[in-house]
Structure formats: structure tokens, C-alpha cells
């Protein structure tokens, strides 16, 4: 079977595919223009959505595309075909996301930034550290990644609250609600973590009205999509001390333009979309599992519903 690999780190993916020993042939590149002819002959593509979209715009279409990303926004554009199987990366980012979140949750409780400032001033820091135990953690988007995050943070004794698509009980969350409940839930959250995908319903939901309801000691963390946040409203909320700080991993435009105010907003830390990178080994493991499912007409992991945008 001949497959197309189109990714910025294509050599890492081909190395892992070779190790999988599946007797696959593959054509690989980090530029769509280099693989146009091969793409016409390959029914299966493994690739970065923004690169794959370039081929789709040339009226070349496979039977199945395995995305290397959890988000597939570039492939949801109205001018692209949607009559093929698209699977997004699932089950591969949970551990990475937990490690990222723990970095900033603990840094916040342990006042790491304040202690660095005190050290620069040669000032002994007598601040009393906090603890995650009994802190309320609101996960907005308790899907595949959100549930892994909750399960791995549960041993720290946090009070887990989730936002899901439909109201239901979901372990290990103490309470779950829908987006309609979000304004009420943010009022008591010590940490609000946005993990929502980019859909029409989730755009601009983190606005001034919502930020104004948060506790002044709360930390907002966006590791979902930049389109969920009204940038100007977050900047104003931080200036007005409506919340204690913000950790922003994803932005509306990436890389973030040099003139964007996020670079210089007090209380805001940018992490340049580094929370949970696509690593070749787990992505290829997922691809191989889905390849078996595809060949045997079985349900595929992470299959995208184009009508729901995820």
C-alpha cells in the first residue's frame, strides 16, 4: 500500500513508519508542491492539516486523511471537499497536556514569578505557598484530552468541574455542565482551562462579560483555540485585576505578530503553542491502529464529523 506523508517533520514520521514494519510504501515531503503527482495515486494521507489543505485545493482528494494534529480547522474550510474520511489525532496528547498544566498550576501556587522578582531585588521572599488540594479546576471542553487531564490531576485533590457538550455524569468530575452553565461555573473556579475546539459555538466565548465574573485570584489558561478568546477583553480584564493572570498557549494568529499587545501585557505568559506537540511515535501508533480499522471497515478513532467541526 502506498501512502503520502506530508508534514513539517516528515522524516520523523517515515522513520517511525519504517519501524512499524507494515510493508508500506510512502512518498514524503514538507511541501505540497513536491508531492502533487504522488498525491493523485495515494488513497491514504498522513499529514499536517495546513499542508494537506493545499493539495485538497488542487482538486486532489484521498479516501482517508489522518491528521497529525488534534485540531483540524484548516480542513474545515467551506471551499474544501468534505466527502472523505478525516481522523484527527486522539489519545496522544493527554500526558503532555497534564505536564504543561502542572507546570503553570504549581508555578502559580508556589509564586514562582514573584520569587524570581524578589531574587532580582535581593529581597528575601516570605510569601506562603499555596496548594492544589481543594482548588477548583474548571475544564472547559472535557473531551478526549480533558478527561485524561482530569484523571491525572485528580490525585492532587483538586475539585474537578467540567464543561461538556451535553449534561451528564463523567468521572472523575464532581460536576459537569454545558456552555450554558459556564458563566455560573467560572464564578467559583480557581483555575479555568479552555480546551474547546474551534467551532461556531465556541468562538469569542471568553469575553469581558465572562472574565468579569471570575475570581480576582483565578488563573485563566487557554490551550484550546485562540478563536475562543476576545484578545482585547482579556487584556482589559488583566489590567482591571478581574483575574490574577493568564497563560496563553494558542492565539488567533500564529506566530503572534510582533505588534500584538499580548507580548507586553502584565500578568500574561505566552508559551507559543508548545503545550502538547505532535510527536511522531504516538501519532504513527494511532495511524497504524486506524489503518487496520480502515482496511477492515471498522470504526476509526478520532473520526471527524464535518457538520460538528470536530
TrEMBL record:
CDD domains membership: 2-Hacid_dh_1
Keyword Protease: no
InterPro entries assigned to the protein according to its UniProt record, in alphabetical order: D-isomer_DH_NAD-bd, NAD(P)-bd_dom_sf
Keyword terms: NAD, Oxidoreductase
GO MF annotations, alphabetized: NAD binding; oxidoreductase activity
Gene3D superfamilies membership: NAD(P)-binding Rossmann-like Domain (3.40.50.720)
Residues in D-isomer specific 2-hydroxyacid dehydrogenase NAD-binding domain copies: 103-275
Protein name: D-isomer specific 2-hydroxyacid dehydrogenase NAD-binding domain-containing protein
Organism: Adineta ricciae
Upper lineage: Eukaryota, Metazoa, Spiralia, Gnathifera, Rotifera
Amino acid at each position: 500500500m502506498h501512502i503520502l506523508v506530508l508534514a513539517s517533520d516528515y522524516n520523523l514520521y517515515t522513520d517511525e513508519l519504517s519501524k512499524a514494519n507494515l510493508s508500506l510504501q510512502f512518498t514524503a515531503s514538507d511541501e505540497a508542491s513536491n508531492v502533487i503527482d504522488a498525491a493523485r495515486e495515494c488513497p491514504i494521507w498522513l499529514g499536517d492539516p495546513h499542508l494537506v489543505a493545499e493539495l485538497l485545493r488542487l482538486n486532489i482528494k484521498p479516501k482517508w486523511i489522518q491528521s497529525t494534529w488534534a485540531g483540524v480547522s484548516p480542513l474545515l474550510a467551506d471551499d474544501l471537499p468534505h466527502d472523505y474520511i478525516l481522523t484527527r489525532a486522539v489519545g496522544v496528547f493527554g500526558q503532555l497536556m497534564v505536564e504543561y498544566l502542572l507546570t503553570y498550576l504549581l508555578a502559580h501556587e508556589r509564586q514562582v514569578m514573584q520569587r524570581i522578582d524578589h531574587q532580582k531585588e535581593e529581597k528575601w521572599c516570605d510569601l506562603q505557598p499555596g496548594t492544589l488540594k481543594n482548588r477548583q479546576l474548571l475544564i472547559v471542553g472535557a473531551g478526549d484530552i480533558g478527561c485524561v487531564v482530569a484523571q491525572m490531576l485528580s490525585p492532587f485533590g483538586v475539585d474537578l468541574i467540567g464543561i461538556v457538550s451535553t449534561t451528564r455524569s463523567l468521572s472523575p468530575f464532581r460536576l459537569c455542565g454545558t456552555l450554558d452553565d459556564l458563566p455560573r461555573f467560572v464564578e467559583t473556579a480557581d483555575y479555568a482551562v479552555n480546551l474547546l475546539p474551534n467551532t461556531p459555538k465556541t468562538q469569542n466565548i471568553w469575553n469581558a462579560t465572562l472574565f468579569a465574573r471570575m475570581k480576582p485570584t483565578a488563573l485563566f489558561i487557554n490551550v484550546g483555540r485562540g478563536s475562543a478568546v476576545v484578545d482585547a477583553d482579556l487584556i482589559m480584564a488583566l489590567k482591571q485585576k478581574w483575574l490574577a493572570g493568564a497563560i496563553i498557549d494558542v492565539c488567533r494568529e500564529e506566530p503572534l505578530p510582533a505588534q500584538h499587545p499580548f507580548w507586553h501585557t502584565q500578568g500574561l505568559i505566552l508559551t507559543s503553542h508548545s503545550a502538547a506537540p505532535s510527536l511522531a511515535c504516538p501519532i504513527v501508533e494511532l495511524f497504524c491502529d486506524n489503518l487496520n480499522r480502515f482496511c477492515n471497515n471498522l470504526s476509526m478513532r478520532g473520526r471527524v464529523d464535518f457538520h460538528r467541526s470536530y
